[in-house]
Design a protein that fits this description.
Structural class: mainly alpha
Distance between the termini: 41 Å
Order of helices and strands: HHH
């Protein structure tokens, strides 16, 4: 019975991870599209106060981990 619960937890976790990854990609795409279509602003992120230096180090670490996990692992060169 515990194995069934663990399996269900793993399936739910994978579904959630996939869903969040897709939503995040959609938001990134939307932001890039808005950034490209925004006239008169050379750097929209600095206009709203969101610049690289102001990012939380934990956020940067999580973002790097997400980028690594997003890329498929290469096995056997």
């Amino acid at each position: 019975m515990q194995a069934n619960i663990d399996d269900e937890i793993q399936r739910s976790y994978r579904r959630l991870q996939k869903k969040l990854s897709l939503e995040f990609q959609e938001k990134l795409s939307e932001w890039e599209r808005l950034k490209q279509n925004s006239p008169g602003t050379s750097n929209p992120s600095s206009a709203c106060g969101f610049v690289e230096e102001n990012r939380d180090p934990n956020f940067i670490k999580k973002m790097e981990e997400w980028q690594k996990n997003k890329e498929p692992a290469t096995v056997g060169c």
